[in-house]
Design a protein that fits this description.
It comes from Sabulicella glaciei. The chain is mostly beta strands. 0% of the residues lie in helices and 36% in strands. The chain contains no helices and nine strands. The N and C termini lie close together (12 Å). The chain binds FE2/S2 (inorganic) cluster.
Length: 112
């Protein structure tokens, strides 16, 4: 059974071309993050498929310098924003765990 949708933030709180991290529900140690591309949003569990650590070295820093790819700070794995697949690094071919996300009336909601 999938988790119910819960409100994360207002859409405009995520900069276009940027990303924002969120803690999990109460009692959860693992968080998630949302990447915004224009009007679209993509969300993943904040856990690298390589060894399972959070990707962001400092809060909300999930993307490379150009803002094109998701980066894991631990060993430099890079993931496509659109599908979370690792395209370079030690877990090449693995994928970030997707989280269902939607924007409703300007509010970002996720099943997490
Ligand atoms: S933990 Fe992410 S690349 Fe190693």
């Amino acid at each position: 059974m999938s988790a119910p949708m819960r409100a994360l933030c207002r859409f405009e709180e995520i900069p276009d071309g940027g990303a924002k991290g969120f803690s999990g529900p109460p009692g959860s140690f693992i968080g998630m993050f949302v990447v915004r591309r224009g009007e679209r949003v993509f969300a993943y569990v904040n856990s690298c498929p390589h060894v399972g650590v959070p990707l962001d070295p400092v809060p909300d820093r999930f993307l490379d310098r150009k803002g094109e790819l998701i980066v894991c700070s631990a060993h430099g794995a890079r993931f496509r924003v659109e599908d979370g697949e690792c395209i370079s690094g030690p877990c090449m071919g693995d994928v970030l765990e997707p989280v269902a996300v939607e924007v409703v009336e300007g509010e970002v909601r996720a099943a997490f």
